[in-house]
Design a protein that fits this description.
Blueprint (H helix, E strand, L loop, with lengths): L27 E5 L8 E13 L2 E2 L5 E5 L4 E19 L4 E2 L1 E3 L5 E2 L4 E5 L4 H4 L9 E7 L6 E8 L3 H4 L16 E3 L3 E2 L2 E7 L3 E3 L2 E3 L2 E5 L23 E6 L10 E5 H5 L13 E2 L6 H9 L4 E2 L5 E2 L7 E4 L1
Parallel strand pairs: 2-19, 17-20
Antiparallel strand pairs: 1-2, 2-3, 2-10, 4-5, 5-6, 5-9, 5-11, 5-14, 7-10, 8-9, 11-18, 12-13, 14-17, 15-16, 19-23, 21-22
């Protein structure tokens, strides 16, 4: 990792912000790497990753509406997640050679990208915070391929998620996304305060949390990283068809929070932590993890999956 700008340094973030590239309007630049072979080119491709709730773009000032079965509204407190192993696929089913560009939000050595949509720190009550809403890929010979699919994994690779040495790298340094070395990081943190609050067995809450993390990780204690894979890593691959990318236009990937929360009553939590924090037996996790296409173990021990993912889509 070349860059050392501490945009995620605890406790405050830098004020630099990346703007969301509009659909079909992302930037590309082409560099001829071999003048003797004109076909050997590298294109820096910018792929927009938008986050919305229905038709509302995620930001600290936005009011999210139509949330869950109670049709409540709410305000964002945190909204961020990691992805890795991005692949572009052409119409022949061939994965196109591409690597992550080295930016403040990307770790090309481990293939990881960090997205942050919260544009103010202190749970949306402070000063400006750096956001990232895009991926920059260096693609070989893009013009010779017709791209029609994109793949990526939501979450972090095992070695990165549980490796304390990487805590000094800016993609992973914020304590806001840290559990412990046994459990790893909050690979997706989406915290929203519903307007009408939360009640659970007489207890009141103010913030509905969705924390995607690895579960069933075995080590000596919480301060020690596991040496074997967790029983429920909760890393899931997305494969989106009908995705087009060329030198002149790139489709947008959209994450929809309204779809993630569909089928859940935010105002009446049925058990466990307020919201879903990936722990087995949490009633809300059955629906929410299922929306990501993840299987989930209920309190009874039964394993369920609500079906294929519904929260990510392609926008032309």
């Amino acid at each position: 990792m070349k860059t050392t700008l501490n945009y995620l340094s605890y406790p405050l973030l830098a004020s630099m912000a990346f703007g969301l590239v509009a659909c079909g309007g992302s930037s590309t630049s082409t560099d001829t790497t071999d003048t003797a072979a004109a076909e050997d080119t590298t294109t820096t491709l910018t792929i927009p990753y938008a986050a919305r709730s229905g038709s509302t773009d995620i930001s600290c000032d936005a009011t999210l509406t139509g949330l869950g079965t109670s049709d409540d509204s709410g305000k964002v407190k945190y909204f961020a997640y990691f992805i890795h192993d991005i692949e572009l696929v052409d119409n022949n089913g061939t994965a196109v050679s591409a690597t992550l560009a080295d930016t403040d939000f990307q770790d090309p050595d481990n293939g990881v990208v960090f997205f942050n949509y919260r544009d103010k720190d202190a749970t949306c009550g402070g000063s400006a915070e750096a956001t990232n809403k895009q991926v920059k890929l260096d693609v070989k010979n893009l013009g010779s391929h017709t791209i029609n699919k994109i793949r990526f994994k939501v979450g972090l690779p095992f070695s990165v998620n549980h490796n304390s040495a990487l805590n000094t790298q800016t993609e992973y340094a914020s304590s806001d996304y840290y559990w412990n070395w046994q459990g790893g990081r909050k690979m997706m943190r989406l915290d929203v305060a519903p307007t009408n609050g939360i009640v659970q067995s007489g207890n009141a809450g103010t913030v509905w949390n969705f924390h995607l993390g690895s579960i069933g990780c075995t080590s000596a204690d919480a301060t020690t990283a596991p040496t074997a894979a967790c029983s429920s890593p909760n890393v899931v691959q997305m494969e989106l068809d009908n995705f087009a990318a060329s030198d002149t236009a790139v489709d947008t990937i959209v994450f929809d929070y309204q779809k993630l929360i569909a089928g859940v009553d935010m105002n009446n939590d049925q058990g466990g932590k307020f919201g879903c924090m990936s722990f087995p037996g949490d009633p809300e996790c059955t629906s929410m993890l299922g929306k990501l296409g993840l299987t989930y173990t209920q309190a009874t021990g039964a394993t369920v999956n609500d079906g294929t993912q519904t929260v990510f889509s392609v926008e032309k």
